[in-house]
Amino acid sequence: MACGSCGTTVNGVPRGCKSNGNCGTGTCGSGSEKLAVFDWLSNMTLPSGQERFNIFEVRFKNGRKHFYRNAENLTISMGDVVAVESSPGHDIGVVSLAGELVKVQMKKRNITLDSEEINKIYRKATQKDIDIWQAARDKEEETQRKGREILGRLGLQMKLSDVEYQGDGNKATFYYTADSRVDFRQLIRDFASAFSVRVEMKQVGARQEAARLGGVGSCGRELCCSTWLTDFRKVTTSAARYQQLSLNPLKLAGQCGKLKCCLNFELDSYLDALKPFPKQELVLKTEKGEAIFVKMDIFKNHLWYTYKDESSKWFRLDLEQVLEIIDLNKNNEKSASLEEYESEIEVPVKVSFEDAVGEDSLTRFDAPVRSNRKKKPKKKPVATAEKLVSEIAPKQLQQNRRPQQQVKKPQPQPKKQKTVNTQDSENQPNAAIQNANKKRSNNRNRRNRKPKNDKDSQ
C-alpha cells in the first residue's frame, strides 16, 4: 500500500520515506503490517466515464483480511477505520486496499463480485466505536491467559495460540491447534461463563499459527508466511534431497516445527539442472574396479565417485566424463581408471588477495593491538623556584628545632717533626711532591686508637 511519503512525484520519480525498510506509517509492503500490498496505482487517475471500484479490502488483527462493499457510496480511502457488518453486531477494521488492485486480490482468492462472503461497510468509525474497540483489544492478553488456565484444568490436548475480540466487544474468537479431534463443548461453556461473551472456536494448523504470531527465520528475515506467503503448499523431504541438503531436522524445520516453505522456492531450478545427470544408483565399471556415487555439485557439473574396495579416497569427475564411462559400459567395455580421468580435469585457480591490513578479520577489534614502538621516557618536570623554596623551608625549620649535640671526636696524636737538612732540601726541590704521592695509612686504625694518657691527649 502507499502512504503520502512513499508515493511518486509529478514526473513519476519515487519519493520514498527513507526509513530503510521499516515504514513509519505501517502501510507499505515492507512495513509493520503483515501481508501488506503496495498500491502502485494510487497516483493514477481513472479513465473518463469509469467509476471507482466500490469493494474495499479491510484488515483486522494479525493480517486477517476480508472484502466489503461500499453500498452507501461513502468517501473512503486507505487507512480509514471503518465499521463493517459481522455476525452478530459489527466489527472494526482498517481499510488496507482500494481501487483496481482489489480485483486482483479477489481473483487470487477465487471470490466473485456477487459472492455472499462480501459484506457491506456500515460507516466510518466514530470516536466511541474506536474507544470500545481499543478496550476490547486490551482484554485479549488477559483472556488468553485465563483461557489457558481453564484448558489445563480440563486436561484437553490442545493449545490456545491467540484470542481476537470483535470490534463491539460482544464476541471472542479463540484460535487453537490440536493434533487430533477435541471435544470442547464443556470448554465453550466455561469460556462463556468466565468472559460473558459469545465464544467461537477456530482450529488452525501449525503454519497458520506461525503466520499469525510472526517471527524471524534462520535467514535473519521475517517469516515469509507472515509477510507475503498466503498459499501453503506441501513440502516433503525429497525437496531437500534434490537440492543435496543434509537431512537434519533441526536445520530443515521452521518456526512452526514443519519443513520450511522455502525448500520449494528453488526446487524447479534444481530439477531442471538435474535432467542431464545420471542416476545416483548407477555403478561405473572401470579397469581398476567398480565405482559408486558419493556426491555431486549440480551447478559446477562435478560428480565424486569412489571404488567399492577403496572407499577412503574420492575422485572428482566431470559430467561429460561420467557420461562417456556410462556409454562404454553399455557396450560392455570397461573404462580407464578414475585416476586417469581425474588428472584430465583442469582445476581453475582461485583468484585471492592478501589481507595485509586485517580488514577482513571479524575479531580485529576484540584484542587491543600492541605497537612495537618503544615508549619515550617521560621528561621530569623542571622544578621551579617556588617549589624548591616550599620544599626546602620546612626541612630547615625542623633542623633548627632539633638540639645540637656536641660530639667529642678523638684528637689524633701529634706527629714528630723530622729534622731536615737545608742542603738536602735545596738539593731535592721535589721532596714535597714525593711525600704527597706516598700511600696514606689507614684512617680507621688511627681513629680507633685511644689515647694512652689524658695528658698526652690534652
Helix content class: 25-40%
Rg, Cα atoms, Å? 49 Å
The counted number of beta strands is: 12
Question: Could you give a short account of the major beta sheet?
Answer: 5 strands, mixed, barrel
Order of helices and strands: EEEEHEHHEEHEHHHHHEEEEHHHHHHH
The neighbouring-strand order within the major sheet is: 1-2-5-3-4
Strand content: 15-25%
Explain what the structure shows.
The structure is a single chain. The chain starts with 54 loop residues before the first strand and ends with a helix. It has 458 residues and is of the alpha+beta class. Among the domains are: 121 residues, no CATH class; 78 residues, GMP Synthetase, Chain A, domain 3; 61 residues, no CATH class. The protein has a 5-stranded mixed beta barrel. It has a 4-stranded antiparallel beta sheet with strand order 9-10-11-12, with helices on one face. Strands 6-7-8 form a 3-stranded mixed beta sheet, with helices on both faces. Helix 3 crosses helix 4. Helix content is 29%, strand content 15%.
